[in-house]
Amino acid sequence: MNLPTCPPAAPTQPPSWPCAGDGWDAHAHVFGPVSAFPYGSARRYTPPEQTVEDYLANLDRLGLRHGVLVQPSVYGDDNAALVDALQRADGRLLGVVQMNALAVDDRQMAQWHDAGVRGVRLWWDGPGRAGELAGMAARLRGTGWHLDVYASDAAALASFLPHVERLTLPVMVEAMGSPRAEDTHSPESFQTLLAMLREGSLWAKLSHPYKIDPGGLPYPRARPWAQALARAAPSQLVWGSDWPHPMIAGPMPHDGALLDLLPEWAGGVEVARRILQDNPARFYLGEI
């Protein structure tokens, strides 16, 4: 296969602001070891081998205690690498799997839950996934798990948000809702997202600034979107690194520099700490 090969993550330096404590990185991935967990043949890219030990060392350098591993597309519905990583993380990590709601039984879900799984990732590219969404919501009700949604663009987000109220599940939206720098004005879907965040109807991740602005740090064209989210509903946000940054467009950042953007986005260190510590503890530990 002639696939893009992703570079490894850059060596991380500590952030410049004092964020040490019970902080969370709410979006990261592990890849490999490939000898034990080979990548799927239908993948769109080939990532570097970056193991749970590498990721825990990265958290330590950032001064963070907790992380959330999200199933990457290269593994499809095979969550073995993610679950293995959770089991070797000494309770520091939780996980978000990808699954077919009809193909996973209660026993499997219970085993995943014991390992630290607390959510399911859904790739949403338009209204054609409405049936899948309904089936997933029915499967997750009563489990204490949440739905982690990646909308491919503003139009996809617009088609997803009307479903949220009837899901009766906690919902986390990835990548700031997937706006793009070329949007010359705020899409209606982003305004709806802001309104729903204010109402407490869902949550969002301050993550993936390079998907908005591929020009490199400090991602100035991503700043207005992040700041709008923080002004609208700082209590409904978490921060995610997206380590080790697979399929990044533009220069590879180090995660300390990414974390240094948070106080600017949030309007100060106090709000940044809430986004980094208090909010994810509420969301991922079931206090919502």
UniProtKB/TrEMBL annotation:
Gene3D superfamilies attached to this UniProt entry = Metal-dependent hydrolases
**Location of the Amidohydrolase-related domain:** 24-284
Q: Name one GO molecular function term.
A: hydrolase activity
Xref: InterPro entries: Amidohydro-rel (IPR006680), Aro_Compnd_Degr_Hydrolases (IPR052358), Metal_Hydrolase (IPR032466)
| Swiss-Prot/TrEMBL keywords | Hydrolase
Q: Which residues form a coiled coil?
A: none
This protein is called Amidohydrolase family protein
- Protein's organism: Verticiella sediminum
